[in-house]
Amino acid sequence: MSQPLVLGIETSCDETAIGIVKGRTLLANEIASSVQEHARFGGVVPEIASRAHLEAMIPSLDRALKSAKVSLRDIDAIAVTAGPGLVGALLVGTSTAAAIALALDKPLFGVNHLAAHISVDYLTHDKAIEPTIALLVSGGHSSILQINDITSSITSLGSTMDDAAGEAFDKIARDMGLGFPGGPAVDLEAKNGDSSAINFPRGLTQAEDWRTRPYDFSFSGLKTAVARYLESTPDYKRGDVAASFQEAIVDVLLQKSLAACTATGIQSLVIAGGVAANSRLRELAEQRCRDAGVLLRIPSPLLCTDNGAMVAALGSLMSSAGRPYSAIDLSASSSLAVTTVSV
Ligand code: KG4
Ligand code: ZN
């Protein structure tokens, strides 16, 4: 089966998302978000998310099939996020996927949400990207990975010691009263500011850090520095704080990713996950990769934040590579390791 028609189901957090791909062609990408229901709590409430997935699942599935102009019977394989994520939310997706796989008697792939974030790049670029270095930056994870084969071989070179990059954006936004989720709000606010106005710290970039943990991140010092600045400067300029904070985080992410390219001799970088939608990260990555002679891949902003197309894309790659199917009673794992591509 060279061009499998794959249904992808994503429910790891607050998006009920269904994607349908044929081989590497995207046919449908339906996203129902419960973000507004969580906004007043300043973060995702697991119980609300699970309930919202249950309500949105069948209508989203129907919309995706309609938009792809296919019927459920045409589907060759089903892929679903098996982790990491909120366990109650994941279970809605895995139960739905297992039920469909059982009813249609089709293969099921329980896949890693983080590997799926990277896989979505295959839908937009057809040149093979392996081996590549990947910078994965989402609301819950920040890692530098070496990808030899996205369906089977992912090595972690480094990761965050404290907050994820997206979490840092969300917390700073909350401190500045910019609402939730914070990343897009900080991105927008930064456009009105001067990124060199305040020199915020770049975590783990001292000489000793480059020797001992070159590809690890720490954003807690930056977060504290911003909070102190806000407290001690009542008439602060929101735009300047947002732009300077964003510059500090983006600078470190790219310094470390490019150092990984140099050290491994892999002149290719994929940036994926929700924070990859950040406009300054995209702009500076282009500039620095061009200067360093590194081939850069970043999916379109809509495909960076959580979606079902990324899950379908990884399912399609798994199916074409002949990877083993998951058991029909596959388990959802809230803390699935980034190196475990499928369960
Ligand atoms: O990958 P994702 O959609 O969900 C997780 O798997 O966590 O990532 C969500 C994270 C949130 O922290 C959100 O604030 C951040 O991605 N994000 C952004 C932008 N858009 C989303 N961060 C910075 N700039 C953005 N434009
Ligand atoms: Zn994600």
From TrEMBL:
Residues 26-312 form the Gcp-like domain. Its EC number is 2.3.1.234. Keywords: Acyltransferase, Cytoplasm, Iron, Metal-binding, Transferase, tRNA processing. The keyword Hydrolase does not apply. One of its GO terms (molecular function) is metal ion binding. GO terms for biological process: tRNA threonylcarbamoyladenosine modification. It catalyses: L-threonylcarbamoyladenylate + adenosine(37) in tRNA = N(6)-L-threonylcarbamoyladenosine(37) in tRNA + AMP + H(+). This is N(6)-L-threonylcarbamoyladenine synthase. It comes from freshwater metagenome.
